[in-house]
Design goal:
alpha/beta, Dehydroquinate synthase-like, alpha domain, Rossmann fold, 2 domains, 6-stranded parallel β-sheet, binds nicotinamide-adenine-dinucleotide, binds fe (ii) ion
């Protein structure tokens, strides 16, 4: 990246860092079980609620206990269950239409990050009917209070229940983009490990690595604060001590609970301290080819970290200590290597590939341009890269036979 653009990016990021203590960040109120949800709705005088979820969750009947609890308390519910992985603008509009048709006054996002983000974006469109999702892209474009929003994550994962972001894919252009605004932070979040038990091992692994990526990218960025660093280290510790067990035995409630808490902490870290190029590239692949978000991050993570070079070794050493891979006497370079090796080994154990088979060489300039536009100047990454430099990163993830 040329020196002028670098100066612009770093100045932009410094301004946001200075403003950080003044900005109205908030956290959701945490609830331990879905049985608390009807009472909250009653207290807020909400008697008609829209549930946003996806077809697999409906098929697995995961949502039944919530629906029964609502019915018992006389709360009418209406279910939108057509959310796709990498939720689209069409999904959001359909969910919004259902909300309006039934005169609802609250929204529950129930599912993985896709359902939670679809619920958030539907809320934004309900309060801003004249502003398209495309116009909400970026930061602080909504600025109007959403209807009561409750997030119930069933993956551990995205941390969307803790964040001010919703990531949406344009149904026509297939471009995936984050919408960031304080009003998107849910009012309540239910962290119940029992509803994550049915998550299959591979999805457990990839969504778990998504949470790991949030913690690492937030930690490495220049806008990390004492609190977000602490949250990120806690998340890394929990993931390194629980993800393998949740992968091996999905019914282990302790491991599932640790992963949900890790995902939440990682969400708290990155909502204030941002993500980095792993996410910017993953979003371009999710939008263009529908590559699941956790899988894209899991494929990309170690290679992008390696591209940052020795500038991140000290921070990786600190994360290696949090992960139990090093102690404070371990030399920086050695500790950083152990941390990167551990991520590579984790990928091998979980059967995560090293390429994105859908990626086509001719698409790379356009995708790199999308990633550049998403990340620069907003993400305070440790090493700035422009579209040309990002293109070289994409080449790593081509299938070997396509990279000749
Ligand atoms: N808003 C944010 O802060 C934020 C952060 C990171 C990622 N995201 C977004 O979240 C989306 C990805 O979410 P995700 O990784 O949680 O996956 P997902 O929501 O797309 O779900 C993936 C699959 O897992 C299934 N599933 C979910 N929970 C299950 C369970 N308990 N048992 C069985 N199957 C279950 C779903 O039905 C779906 O088929 C992406 O669009 C990504 O961009 C948002
Ligand atoms: Fe993510």
């Amino acid at each position: 990246m040329n020196i002028f653009r670098k100066c612009y990016c770093r100045t932009f990021q410094a301004a946001f860092r200075l403003a950080l203590p003044l900005l109205p960040y908030r956290s959701p109120q945490l609830l331990s079980g879905i049985d608390r949800v009807p009472k909250i709705l009653r207290q807020q005088h909400c008697t008609r609620v829209l549930i946003v979820t996806d077809a697999d969750i409906t098929r697995l009947k995961l949502i039944r206990p919530l629906q029964q609890a609502l019915t018992r308390q006389g709360i009418s519910w209406f279910c939108y269950d057509r959310t796709s992985a990498n939720p689209t603008t069409d999904n959001v509009e359909e969910a919004k239409a259902l909300y309006l048709k039934h005169g609802c006054s609250a929204i529950i996002g129930f599912g993985g990050g896709s359902s939670l983000d679809c619920a958030k974006a539907a809320g934004a469109r309900i309060v801003k009917p004249r502003q398209s999702l495309q116009k909400m892209k970026g930061i602080l474009k909504i600025r109007r209070r959403l209807p009561l929003l409750i997030a119930i994550p069933t993956t551990a994962g995205t941390g969307s229940e803790a964040t001010l972001a919703a990531v949406i894919t344009d149904s026509v252009t297939r471009r995936k983009y984050p919408i960031n605004d304080f009003v998107l932070t849910p009012d309540y979040a239910v962290l119940d490990p029992c509803i994550t038990v049915s998550l299959p091992p591979f999805l457990t692994a990839t969504t778990g690595i998504d949470a790991l990526t949030h913690a690492i990218e937030a930690y490495l960025g220049n806008s990390a604060t004492r609190d977000t660093r602490k949250a990120a280290r806690k998340a890394v510790h929990l993931i390194f001590t629980s993800l393998d067990q949740a992968f091996r035995d999905g019914t282990d409630i302790r491991a599932r609970k640790c992963m949900l808490i890790a995902s939440y902490y990682a969400g708290c870290a990155f909502t204030k301290s941002y993500v980095g190029y792993v996410h910017a590239i993953a979003h371009s692949l999710g939008g263009e080819y529908g590559v699941p978000h956790g899988l894209a991050n899991a494929v990309l993570l170690p290679s992008v970290l390696e591209a940052y070079g020795s500038s991140i070794h000290e921070k990786l050493r600190q994360l290696a200590i949090a992960a139990g891979l090093a102690d404070r006497h371990t030399p920086r370079r050695e500790a950083a290597k152990r941390f990167l090796d551990a991520i590579h080994e984790m990928k091998t154990r979980f059967g995560i590939p090293s390429a994105i088979p859908e990626l086509r060489k001719e698409d790379i300039p356009r995708l790199a341009h999308y990633a550049d536009r998403e990340a620069n100047p907003l993400y305070p990454v440790p090493v700035l890269m422009d579209a040309g430099e990002l293109e070289r990163l994409y080449l790593i993830f081509l299938r070997k036979e396509d990279n000749l």
